Amino acid sequence: MVFKLRDYQEDAGKRITQAIVNGKRRILFNMATGAGKTVSMSDFALRVAERDYKTLIIVDRTELMSQTVRFGSPEHPFGILSADNFRPQQITVAMLQTLGSRLKKEFYQEWLSEFDFIFFDEIHQYYNGTTFATICDFAGEDTTIIGVTATPWDNKGYLLEGFDEFINGADIITLIEKGYLVKPEHYTVELFDFSNVKVTSTGDYDTNAIDDIVIDTDKIDKVLDGWLQHAKGKKTIVFCSTVESAKRYADFFRLNGVKAMAVSAQNTDQERANILGRFKTGDIECLFNVGLLVAGFDEPSIECVVFLNPTKILRRYIQCAGRGLRLCPEINKEKCIFLDFVGNSFRHLEVDAIRSYLPKPPKSNDNEDYDEIECPVCGFVFPITEKECPQCGFMLDFDEDLEGGGGKPKKKKDFDRLIKLKSLQKELHDTIYEFAGMPCLVKLEKTGRTLKDGSDERKWCYGYRPDGTPIFKNSTDYKQELYPYPVITYAKKTNCWYTFKTICTKFDPKMGALRYYGKKLRKAKRFLEQIKSPNNRAFVNLYKLLDD
Asked: Phi and psi dihedrals of 399, rounded to 5?
């Protein structure tokens, strides 16, 4: 199969080659949905095959195997290892599950050790699993392992562990700018409150508790209204957390004249194939699904993605969003509408936001000796053996037995909680001070009137006249088309200091210190990240948003 590389694909291949030359043997390679991961892997394998190197490409789904094998050339056809087929070649495509099970035999162990390069497609699905570890163990000592994914983050948002080099081939915003993905159009209405939903050991919400919140007869019609207003008539995929919620919503949409269906793992293979076929032809307008149509599902004609599945995991959010970003010239698709009813875009920013790719920080030393604590209110440093700040009188009450019983707290637990509070307070302080120098304050000007308390009245300024006098929204010469937005000015350190002191002196003892400052920190981080992102500007009044 003859194919032409895009500019970023050529650049990515050169960067992988350079990393290998530099001695890197575990490479994490990021290519966003629609960037052509299969093309990049196949091109690399064909190029090194000309120098007699052997490459193994491992996939976890039969659809991906079929797609990859097509890129073989007459000189270098791609071999196959699947449950019912074994045709080894210099470049071989193998099913993950099949290879893992056959490594119990010495023949396959020796065969695997002969490869110079091993690509793991969709590595985020199994990077911490036993099959991946087993394959790596039997690989040759000098074999280069390359994990390929469109979402290189773990459940906490850090880069996947176990790699010594990260290469960002192409992210979503780059592909949109180059015209290889359509532009997203976001509409966010946070209808539901998930603040009291338990977070499981996986780092995400407990799905069992989500049904009681999402299946709300008072709000289900608002979801329908939102879809009718912004995406009526457009092919839509809806992501739900549970089978029950998917069925309920699909039934409600059908009752209101929308061609809707729900699909999940509970359907048979034949039923799923039938539903997906009808969705492809347009016989189904809205398809509600639970975890099935995420990675590997490609239907370019999708024009709307609806989020009814709250998630704390960035990777899952991006995987869902990727289903709607592909180009579709057959319908002249120029954009994809994203309707978020569960606050995912608040947790992870909008789909096209600039992302960070940070390695997981090293674990702190539990044996480190702390003997001081900084007061979260006034900043005074004093011995942690004291429970009251000598400067302002703030009570550090961190007894383990908060519900009664009079039990004496354990020393290590006491220390851990104090240090956690100190770290939290410092992080909040540093986060707020990052606003300094950013264009995030609305310009306030005097109106010429005096308030009841004798102070000058100030309002948002939308522009200035030739003589330098400010124009307000209620000014006679104000026009929306001339002054659509208020004037933005840069934050100063004094602004940050004022905000920080305001937040830290309005402590609510009923909430508890850790919970209180954690809530403030999350709010500060949310707006800081939005302001930093050039694709998601949130010009805000710093005082009001952080302290309202």
From this structure: -65, 140
